[in-house]
Amino acid sequence: MNKLLYPKLAASNISKNRRTYFPYIITCIITVAVFYIVRSLSLNPGLRNIRGDRYVSEMMGLACWIVGIFALVFLFYTNSFLMKRRRREFGLFNILGMEKRHISKVVAFESLYIFLLSASVGTALGIALDKLMFLLITKAVEGDIVFGFFISPNAIMTTVILFAVIFFIVFLNSLRHIHISKPIELLKSGSVGEKEPKSKLLIAILGIICLFAGYYISISTKDIISAITFFFLAVILVIIGTYFIFTSGSIALLKLLRRNKKYYYKTSHFLSVSGMIYRMKQNAVGLANICVLSTAVLVMLSSTTALMAGEETALHNMYPYEINVQTSSKESLNSFSNDVQELIEGEGHKVEKKDTVCCLSVAAVCRGESFEVTKPGNFGDLNSLNNLVFLSLDEYNRLMGEGKTLNKNEILLYSGDDKYNYNTLSVFDKNYEIKEKLKNISDICNSPVVSSYTTRYIVLPDENELEYINKMQQEVYGDDASRLSYILGIDFNGSEEQKREIYAEALELTGNMHTDYVITNRTNGKDSLYPMIASFFFLGIFLGTLFIMATILIIYYKQISEGYEDKERYEIMQRVGVSNDEIKKSIHSQILTVFFLPIITAGVHTAFAFPIITRLLLMFNLSDTALSAVCTVICFAVFALFYAAIYLITARSYYKIVSK
Amino acid sequence: MPILEVKNLKKIYTTRFGGNRVLALSNVSFSVESGEYVAIMGESGSGKTTLLNIIAALDKPTEGEVFLDGKSLSKVKEKEISAFRRENLGFVFQDFNLLDNFSVKDNIFLPLVLSGKSYAEMNLYVQPLAEMLEISDLLDKFPYEISGGQKQRAAVARALITQPRLILADEPTGALDSRATDGLLKIFSKINNDGQTVLMVTHSVKAASHANRVMFIKDGEVYHQIYRGSSSDNEMYQKITDSLTIISTGGADDE
After folding, report:
1. Is A261 on the interface with B (CB under 8 A)?
2. Which DSSP string corresponds to A157-171?
3. Mean pLDDT, chain A, as a whole number?
4. Residue A629: closest CA among A309, A383, A315
5. pTM of the model
């Protein structure tokens, strides 16, 4: 009989506290399921060998670690919260004669139940969703669909062991909570007067400075190297800024409002402002947490969806043609071009497009309308580094099928998305008039310049000018100088498998070429690019799910615990003569602020993060800013929708508590 | 015309599923004249708090009616009930019920702010009141910074600032030490001398002994009442103790 007391008590405790435990258990289950899925995907033989590429598997292996660490931190945090809520209950047990070790025993059973429940249901859910995820990934990387159910005993083992460890650590933390508590304190907890927060103006100002410094980095960073370097600095600055502003800035602002007697002593402002001061003190850190998590979700989801949506553009930027060849001799290119065409037609395919070009690409530092070519290492500001691609007018006219003319010292300029605001351009001590700014240029010119720097195409009047530029840059760069590139691009029809075969044969043909060459093909490029992007995307989805869940839970708990505290205050107000309507209005405006402050801030953060993220996406040759913007907006909308749903659910629970 | 008239109040609490019915008030009738200082005594569970809640329009009676200044509380519209309460009634509670997030001054201002008074006007009201209650230096402090007695005086200031027709006090000395209790009772006597009508619910004999009239409630009915007449506080104290002894030993049961 006595033996059954603890297990029974533990079970009834969980069901009694279901308002707080139910969301916690759901969270545990989903966390377990996500971990299982990630782990199982990393072990799945179907993903291990997508045309010899282990990228997805390795990425999922990495994700395992991230999810595992996140699970620990997150469950630890929420459990601490639960334990704090239950202090009074433990105090009561203590006073009723249970020793701390008895309470510990009960809590041990509770932890065991929750562990068993979440491990079993979570793994089952994981197994069920695993197949779906596998299919989605296979579809995303256009791999071969494997039928049948893959259940990985290894993944189950890892999941169970990991979560056993996590729950044990969480349990130890519960014990700590029980042991540091004193019964008197336990019974009184909550009735201690809340001190009004002091406003720390200095910290608030520091926060604003940090925030704007972070924003400035994001907006001002133009090149990809600095973007990578400074991205994390910007993230840290914005996080610090967010915490400072939420904790100190909000209170400083509210106190300022309170000092304004005319504003403060109005019925609606009176209740809201004072309520918000009180609320911000307790919740500032929680709100900042929510804001940072939301920003993380938004940035992660929007950049990965942008990648996913733009993968085709990226692929075409990297590989303008199915087969791309670059070499340094005109003769070998021409003979190779003929050989490849014969090969393709010999296999029964049709050449759909074939272009060649001769051009020279030179790195130069842009200083207004003059471009300086200096030795590498002397570039100084990477932001102003440009990539100049020179080609002759004859080449241009041949490629574009046009009949433009140029006088000596005149050029045509194509600057892509970047604006060039001058009418002249000088390079190597020569000053050129820009006769026309071109609207577009043939894809073939893209081939040698897979670069994230601003690329400008300069059409020179004749071959001699090109020769001159070539000589000049060889003088500057010496052995590092670029050479005239002869480029060939061929598109032809056929299945992916046939394209791979032709590429392999073309690769053999290059043995006949007596110069150095670079040959790439789009289909093989896709085989390595798509899995990489898919891995990022699914990583984004998994972590996004976990982060959204964390956000939901934190908000829910915040409101619930506030509800219990606010209950008393609203009762007092009711007695003093505040009408139900006024109370409801005040609650409404406060909850609304508390709820939507973090997500609006997160939205602003994301908007300011957008420039640096588009730079980072250039790493994947994704240069479609409009597409990224659309993805970001959609992600924000979806997230806001989720958020609003949570708001409705939480607000309902809150009203229930307050008006009971 | 009496300021407060309570007629045949009956209150039955029903548990959620209609199982148990608890009779809190069976039949209570009394009236309070303007300027009176009435104490209602009774043991825990005798229905004191229920009675007070009904008078305060926080709860509705099952039967019977309450008239304040001749106006039936049941006739006041739901929307106006809070404003009605604010303008006609002042409350003093056992646990002070000051809001932690407001300074003492803002706590006192709360009912006026709700009525839409300007800051200058509120300031004008609060000064003499704070002086009388000796809390002038505490106005900018927060509730957690001051003692229980000081909190209760602040609560009295909040109750008085709207110049209500009736002050309702629910065990106002319940959480105070003896010195603070004396101070508060003096204040009640003083405001009563100035013409303020006070209705206090208590089970402290000492608190009740300051009143002009004491009513005893038992099992949901007004069981007995005594008037001060010309007796002093001490004589009143004696009278109350005697009555309580008789009531609790059930002397009247034999009638």
Report:
1. yes
2. HHHHHHHHHHHHHHH
3. 81
4. A309
5. 0.76
